[in-house]
Amino acid sequence: MSGVVKLFVGDVIRTRKKHPCGGDVWVIERVGADVGMTCRTCGRYVLIDRVKLERRIREFLERGSEETPLLPPLLPPRPVRYPEPPRRSRRPEPAPPPAGPRRRIVKRAGQT
Ligand SMILES: [Zn+2]
After folding, report:
1. Is residue 33 assigned to a domain?
2. Phi, psi angle pair for 52, to nearest 5°
C-alpha cells in the first residue's frame, strides 16, 4: 500500500504481525494520532501509533464508515437492549422493632 492509509472506526483489518494471542484480525475503535483497536481473537484493546499500524496492515477485511459521523445518522440506530442485571425484588423494609411502650427507667431517689 502506498500513500496515506485511511483508517475509519469500524474497519476490520488483518495485520502482518500477530497478536501474542495468535489473532491477527483487529477492529478499529478509535482513530487519531494513535489508533485504538480491539483484537478480535482475545478482545484485548490496544493503542498503537498510527504510522506503525499503517505499516503493519496486511489487508482490510471490512471498511467502516467513510466519514466520521459527526452528526447522528439519519436512521435511528436500532435500540440495543442490554440485558439488565437482575433487579432485586424490592424487599419490604425490615420490620421495625415492636413499638411497645417505652420503658422508662426513672429512678426516683427518695420515694418508695
Ligand atoms: Zn489478541
Report:
1. yes
2. -65, -45
